[in-house]
Amino acid sequence: MLILRIAMAQINTTVGDLDGNAKKIIENIEKASEFRADIVVFPELAVTGYPPEDLLLKADFIRENKKYLNMIAKAAKDITAIVGFADKSVLNKGEGKYAVYNAAAILSNGKMRGVYHKIYLPNYGVFDEKRYFQPGKECPVFIINGVAAGINICEDIWYYEGPARWQVKSGGAELIINISASPYHAGKGEERKRMLLKRARENNSYIVYNNLVGGQDELVFDGNGFIFDKNGRLIAQGKQFEEDMILADLIFSGISGVRSVTRPIKLKTPPVKIVKISGKKGGGLKPFLFKVNKMKPMDKLEEIFSALVLGTKDYVRKNGFSKAVIGLSGGIDSALTAVIAVDALGSDSVIGVSMPSPFSSTGSIVDAEVISRNLNIQFLKIPISSLMDAYDEVLKDVFDRLPRNTTEENIQARIRGNILMALSNKFGWLVLTTGNKSEISTGYCTLYGDMAGGFAILKDVPKTLVYELAQYKNFKEGRDIITRSILEKEPSAELKPNQKDIDTLPPYQVLDPIIHVYVEEDKEIDKIVKMGYEKGLVKMVARMVDKNEYKRRQSPPGIKITPKAFGKDRRLPITNRYQN
Known about the structure:
Elements: E1 2-10, H1 18-34, E2 39-41, H2 59-75, E3 80-92, E4 97-108, E5 111-117, E6 141-144, E7 147-153, H3 163-169, E8 175-180, H4 188-203, E9 206-211, E10 213-216, E11 219-222, E12 226-228, E13 234-237, E14 244-252, E15 274-276, H5 300-318, E16 324-327, H6 332-345, E17 350-354, H7 362-375, E18 378-381, H8 385-399, H9 406-427, E19 430-433, H10 437-442, E20 455-456, H11 463-477, H12 484-488, H13 508-520, H14 525-529, H15 535-547, H16 549-553
Parallel strand pairs: 1-2, 2-3, 6-15, 7-8, 8-9, 16-17, 16-19, 17-18, 19-20
Antiparallel strand pairs: 1-14, 3-4, 4-5, 6-7, 9-12, 10-11, 12-13
Helix pairs in contact: 1-2, 5-6, 5-11, 6-7, 6-11, 13-15
């Protein structure tokens, strides 16, 4: 019997920060060594950060990431480290062509002792790995401290007949280690958990699954790594949305059951080979975490709220901003945006700006001030009436007594956007826009107005969910940070007298489910109608969604929290005459 102590370093990397990522990896190698771990596991592409996208097209970037990997290898002395990096091999020296691989390095005794190249490359949704990587051609099993271990990467573990199965059946692996950078959407953690439980049982092997944590542009990675035993029993679990080091002692029979592979497998699979890393046996330590982790998983609203906070914090921090500014209308969207920003950055780093017009209700002006006091943030009040008058004067000859319409409404929004961008330029504050998914879906927003800014926290959050998250936050805090008057007022842009959102849009309780099935599930209009919706209404919503793609292309990035967000997930042409 052998006992192997596993450490999963669930770290938050930054794309392109090779030096910072390498230092963090080395720090965690040293920390795992202090815990006398035999193996320490890092996330997918930990050296480069994930996803590095077109940085991978730069030869210098690949070269530099391998230089830092060699530096990391020197720190792995009395421990084996599994580290994600971008590998390269020359295809034709004369032509200078080379292949790039999404790779896992096996580091031990100060050197790189082996490498695994990812075989299944995702090319859907937010993923386009086939643009950058070649698939691996081998499926090695590594003997680490006397235990046969199969290493694979993210997508590889999602297939029943995939690398994990080949490594177990043909290579005798008792341990499967998967390094991952799996982006978050609501419910994704439980989906992974169910899949990994099945893989453990199917292969009668331990599964160690380490996932990246942190925000990267539109994506949030939730950590939440798992270790399962051979029966699919959860042994240990990483924290959600936090860096963590997860430790567990695993019991093995040892390499006596490993069969030497001397010929390719009959199935259409990459050849499996056995690579011996170290002859050192396990530490003989008494198991100390061989029991179900008692960590309670977050419920849906806590999970989504945490994702929005982490995504905001990392976008602001990793892009070098120290403060953020928000236009506070007194409505629910700007209030929730401010609440999330304060949780992410602290009250000293958030500025709220009220920009009342003649159409702003007294209640909304007061509500903007109250939410600022409740959050203890700096509050600025900049009325825009005189600027509206100036626009009317400048344009009066050109418009020549034409009736007022949405043009004048949009001017108000653009005045406000201009003011916020002026504050951003003057003080270096990042403008956080406040629009939600319902508005952005239907185009109920103004280009260069309320869409002007650097980051859109609620971009993938439907209006009905905005209310749920606001109520969740109040419940969690035990007080009404977002006041009842904000929660109960009828939604309005307040750009003309007595304006209500319902004048232009269906009620959000009706609109949001239609957007969900049309955008996220790609359902046809006839199928949506069969769900009980009036055909004219469904066609109107679909038409609004499709014709406003040009606006979304010009909107700031925002945090993905649904299975299909606008942007990388959903890419429709702007010039498009097809109608459902």
